[in-house]
Amino acid sequence: MTILTLALLVALGSFAAGLLGALTGLGGGIVVVPMLTLVFHVDIRYAIGASIVSVIATSSGAASAYVREGYTNVRVGILLEVATTVGALIGAALAGVVRTSFLAILFGCVLLFTAYRSLKPVPEHQVLAKPDRWAELFRLDSTYPTMQGLQAYSVQNVPAGFAIMLVAGTLSALLGIGSGIVKVLAMDQLMRLPFKVSTTTSNFMIGVTAAASAGVYMHEGYIDPTIAFPVMLGVLAGALLGARILTRVHPRWLRQLFTVIVVVMAVEMLYKGVRGVV
Amino acid sequence: MTETSSRISEHEIEQVIGRLLQFGVLLAAAVTLVGGVMLLLHHGSTAVSYSTFQGEPAYLRSLRAIVTAAFAGDAMAVVQLGLLLLIATPVARVAFTLVAFALQRDRLYVLVTTIVLALLLYGLVFGGA
Asked: Which domain holds residue A220?
């Protein structure tokens, strides 16, 4: 395949990934690596390098709007970024040591978990609770805008949330994904932040987490310009368009379509990983 | 410091962070696009395969080499420069947050943000090694 053909096809696929990712709220990063390895037969290390860069683009693009609307809890984000960046540096170091078949199997498992979470409704929870010692020390409790004006909320289980963010950072670097699902789950269900605050703060952290491992991958030679430029521009364009038309489409069937794609990719990644043909 | 003045400054910080991220992504995307078009014009018809990992050549891996080659007009290096600007965008956001916390005399968060910035620079400048 010539560079021109490859770049155009990869840009098209990445555009679709970014669009679906934005419309479903699951992020496009999760399908970029399987697409590159399964469809375009790109080595998984080049795929991870290109994907992690596109993750920075989409998260920073979206965060620029959310932060200004006042949903993001900047203090929670920065505190947990200590954990995600440490995790990312660990993950980037591990990536050079572990076998690529292990990466494929791990990727398959994360895809299956993503599909499972995307179909499960998120249970509502109370936003005000007893003050937490760590939340008081780091002054994490805050307010967020609702229809009825600013609503106060308190933050719980800070050490446990911090520990899960270490894992989220490691996964992000190892697989070249944002691992937003793990981050949101920890903040929403464990640390008891309101859902909208959890998703926007997760998005705020994803760019920093990805930047930590992307710097390492640039030095290690994982980031190939020919692969990375159509992925980055494609995913970014798709995500920007997705954010623009979000209010005019019905994400329900799109979510189901996306989940089917994720499951098919999960099975193929697991199959390739187990057979050792990655 | 009264409750209202602290709210206003925090709101202002959020506005600047938002603008900073937007500017960084747009600048990085523009440079990457220019590099990508150059790359397709110069090497578009070259046949490639990425099924085996070889790693990038040294001039596309270190910060200084990428900048030097990009300004010499190398298409691959211009793309890498765009991607470096993208990686630098969240780093700049963290650096700005550090300044903002320092202006608020918030020692605890100056410390927390310094740790994050140090980890990021360690990865970006030294490659984590």
From this structure: 3-275
